[in-house]
Amino acid sequence: MTDPSDGDIRRIHRTTAALLSAVNSSDRDAVLAVWCDDGLLMPPHRPSVRGRSALAAYFGHLFEQRRFKFQFTASQIEIEHDVAIEHVEYTASAWPAEGGTEVRDSGKGVHVYRRQADGSWKLAVDIWNSDRPA
């Protein structure tokens, strides 16, 4: 991997922070704003979700059903040219949108970002899994 610039690392951290904020506020449009048009989401125990319209449907349905509080407890970013890989560890809570029992989780994941023509970084791939037994 090449030695990344501090500016690129800061831009990727801002994109990750925007993703967390959007998920934690159940804001589908803000979630979509951090994704590439051809993004690929690989949620655990679910089929892959590919492309903007499929991502919009997935997050729209998800936020109708549940609320979330995610926090990344660790992040390591490696950059090679116009691709960045972020390894994250997380803690999370989820509960029904209309109230109910909170479920807590912790785990790890990988974000793959692509540099855009304007120098910003957008999420291209997101995959994660729980450290808790099924």
Give a description of the structure.
- The chain has helices spanning 6-24, 28-33, 52-65; strands spanning 35-42, 49-50, 66-80, 83-96, 103-115, 121-130.
- It is of the alpha+beta class and 134 residues long.
- It has one domain: Nuclear Transport Factor 2, Chain: A (Roll).
- A 6-stranded mixed β-sheet has the order 2-1-6-5-4-3.
- It starts with 5 loop residues before the first helix and ends with a strand.
Concise description?
This protein is an alpha+beta fold. It contains 3 helices and 6 strands.
Main sheet record: 6 strands, mixed
Report, as a whole number of angstroms, the end-to-end distance.
35 Å
Strand content: over 45%
Number of H/I helices = 3
Helical fraction equals 25-40%
CATH topology: Nuclear Transport Factor 2, Chain: A
Q: Count structural domains.
A: 1
User: Which regions are unreliable across 5 or more consecutive residues at pLDDT < 50?
Assistant: none
Please tag this protein with its features.
134 residues; alpha+beta; Nuclear Transport Factor 2, Chain: A; six-stranded mixed sheet; 3 helices; globular
Topology of this protein?
Layout: H1 6-24, H2 28-33, E1 35-42, E2 49-50, H3 52-65, E3 66-80, E4 83-96, E5 103-115, E6 121-130
Parallel strand pairs: 1-6
Antiparallel strand pairs: 1-2, 3-4, 4-5, 5-6
